[in-house]
Known about the structure:
The chain is an alpha/beta fold. The protein folds into two domains: about 5-15 and about 85-220, HAD superfamily/HAD-like (Rossmann fold, 3-Layer(aba) Sandwich), CATH 3.40.50.1000; about 15-80, DNA polymerase, domain 1. The protein is built from nine helices and eight strands. The chain has helices at about 15-30, 50-55, 65-80, 90-100, 115-125, 145-155, 175-185, 200-205, 215-220, and strands spanning about 5, 15, 85, 105-110, 130-135, 170-175, 190-195, 210. The chain has a six-stranded parallel β-sheet with strand order 5-4-1-6-7-8, sandwiched between helices. Strand 4 (about 105-110), helix 5 (about 115-125) and strand 5 (about 130-135) form a beta-alpha-beta unit. The radius of gyration is 17 Å and the shape is globular. The termini are close together.
Amino acid sequence: xxxxxxxxxxxxxxxxxxxxxxxxxxxxxxxxxxxxxxxxxxxxxxxxxxxxxxxxxxxxxxxxxxxxxxxxxxxxxxxxxxxxxxxxxxxxxxxxxxxxxxxxxxxxxxxxxxxxxxxxxxxxxxxxxxxxxxxxxxxxxxxxxxxxxxxxxxxxxxxxxxxxxxxxxxxxxxxxxxxxxxxxxxxxxxxxxxxxxxxxxxxxxxxxxxxxxxxxxxxxxx
Length: 222
């Protein structure tokens, strides 16, 4: 029985692609670098902001320029992270139904941790998250499983020892190979979603245990 569901954020709960693309293109254009079409960003995201910018910048960009652009992106994105971003259709209803069933809900994302409180409150005011973790200093990012361990430790620290959740009672839901690898590395079940940034083939090749086409399928799955 599934007692805890861990969700990826970008491409799974929230469609953040337009804001990420717009903010990246803004800083690229400011520095005279070529910009990219929005669809290209589906393959730039997934491994954190640092890697997003490395993929968007020319290969010969110096570390100094990369760091300068990274800082400018973070400042600009802070102000524009919710311009076009929205939950995918059916996500809020599904989360509310899972919550009513007593399923614990958590988020594991490579998005900077400091951006999450405002985003989660803005888009999911009716959801009581058991844990929300993003990219934190000195903590390895996904697909390293540390973020899953931290969520599990947080959840279990609030529960009686007789009711601790084990890894076989967790489902991880995400839209990329990085998410499937994270779940695989943590030893938990994994479901790949088809409404996000990547393809069904990528999810199958990454050994997703389940493929789901609509948010409501999560309820049927558990």
